[in-house]
Design brief:
The structure is a homodimer of 284-residue chains.
Chain A lengths: L1 E3 L2 H13 L4 E6 L5 H13 L2 E6 L19 H10 L4 E3 L3 H4 L6 E5 L6 H5 L3 H16 L3 E5 L3 H13 L5 E5 L22 H4 L1 H15 L5 H13 L4 E10 L13 E9 L3 E8 L4
Parallel strand pairs in A: 1-4, 2-3, 2-6, 3-4, 6-7
Antiparallel strand pairs in A: 8-9, 9-10
């Protein structure tokens, strides 16, 4: 596996792959790899000849009171994990090369970005779409793989790729969970031992909601949201950012449950650690 | 010359050119071709194996009180001109295929877009950068050629291409003028016979400003701007949108004249026809 830090070099390498008719799969990440990342890397490897994983903690997508400065990192370990997952290139640009002092451009998606995480984290998705647009132009992938845990992010990325006609297939990959049900996330490393029970409230609430739907097909959306809230609030460490059941494409609130309905949850544990999770409510 | 209307088809054709190691030159236009366009097409032909000219009157870059509905068009004649100029593909997408009902994405450049034409035409440059980003992804050019008449537009395009790392060389091409000095523009077709004298005030004022600088190297910027204004206002048909002498890269006002200084002028003739022109003030 090769490690590349220069945007100019990665673009040259990508153009070289393309000149040789090799397909490129990109997995954009912020590092501190877990098995969720590994699953994305392997999926990219199944779908493309060459796998590029970008590792860049993107300042544009963090708010002023968020965890940019403390975001976990473990570069040596990440290199080993990526290499073991069959990654060809780990691309780790530095902040100065990504954003010059004169940098002045934003890719912005309206609508999909206004509620949910966009409501709690103003400017977050502008930062995501802008950096992902840059990474696409730097690495020139045929496909790019994103985790479904960041469900709204995936929808926003699909939208700007479609709107701006990027010649890239966007692949969503299902959430990878710990044995206890916790959705894998680099931010789980913030959890202290005695916070784990509270953190499990998200996956517990999701299982509970799916059971409700299974037992009572015509249950009102507001009933489910209310009962999920009750489940979460059993844990005093837990405050709710949002609980919403939305259509998977439009992210608009559902009026009734269907196979397109997604339950999206965001909570804070001890006002310190923001966790998100989601699931379809029917099937599987 | 082939005429293509489908974004999907042009992207396939562009990918096919690239697979054959052929370079692509793009000239984005709004049609109603004149010799200025022809010069851009021929420049693209000198620099790339295949020339794609896009012809799309982009609604996003017109304000509500502007001339979108009356913008001149002459498709048959445009086809002939493009073919004669050696263009390989004339790409004329329709509005519905460019902007679906769900379209929600903007590419926005801050700073460079705030004054000059951006001040007079709010949202104009967002429309330009967004459509040019789309055209880039649809036609996958190695180089793209733009006229220097739209000087601010060219600076804004260079900025977003650099910021978003599009792997495309942006080529600026000098203003092409009529024998009488008038900068060529599709909007010149709006001019009635008795408005031509007034329209010539821009190129006359530019020649006058260059003479001033030649004669008096340390002349104050404000003096030149004042004298240019006097020249323009000799024509009662003429109102001034702006007269500014700026640095060619930053578009910030110059404090003194140098080889980087550009005089930018925008006027309205009879409050109906907006014309722009520009020139360096030293050399040539």
């Amino acid at each position: 596996m090769k490690v590349i830090t220069s945007p100019v070099e990665i673009q040259t390498v990508a153009q070289d792959f393309r000149a040789k008719q090799l397909t490129i799969g990109l997995v954009p990440t912020m590092g501190f790899f877990h098995n969720g990342h590994v699953a994305l890397m392997k999926e990219a490897g199944r779908r493309a000849d060459k796998v590029i994983v970008s590792l860049f903690v993107n300042p544009l997508q963090f708010g002023p009171s968020e965890d940019f400065d403390t975001y976990p990192h473990a570069f040596e370990k990440d290199c080993q994990i990526a290499e073991d997952a069959g990654v060809d290139i780990l691309y780790t640009p530095n902040k100065k090369d990504m954003y010059s002092e004169e940098f002045a451009t934003t890719i912005q998606v309206k609508g999909l970005t206004s509620g949910l995480c966009g409501g709690d984290r103003p400017g977050h998705f502008d930062g995501v779409t802008t950096v992902v647009g840059k990474l696409f132009n730097q690495t020139l992938p045929h496909i790019a793989v994103f985790g479904e845990k960041d469900f709204q992010q995936l929808a926003v990325i699909r939208q700007f790729v479609r709107d701006l006609d990027f010649p890239i297939s966007i692949i969503g990959y299902p959430i990878v969970r710990e044995a206890n049900g916790l959705a894998m996330s680099s931010r789980n490393s913030y959890l202290k031992k005695d916070e784990m029970d509270a953190a499990l409230c998200l996956s517990t609430a999701i299982r509970y909601a799916k059971n409700l739907v299974r037992k009572q097909q015509n249950i009102a959306v507001s009933d489910i949201e209310k009962k999920v809230a009750d489940t979460l609030l059993k844990h005093s460490e837990c405050t709710i950012d949002y609980i919403q059941i939305v259509h998977q494409n439009t992210l608009q609130n559902c009026t009734q449950i269907s196979s397109d309905s997604i339950l999206l949850i965001a909570v804070k544990i001890n006002n310190r650690i923001r966790l998100i999770d989601n699931s379809k409510l029917t099937g599987g």
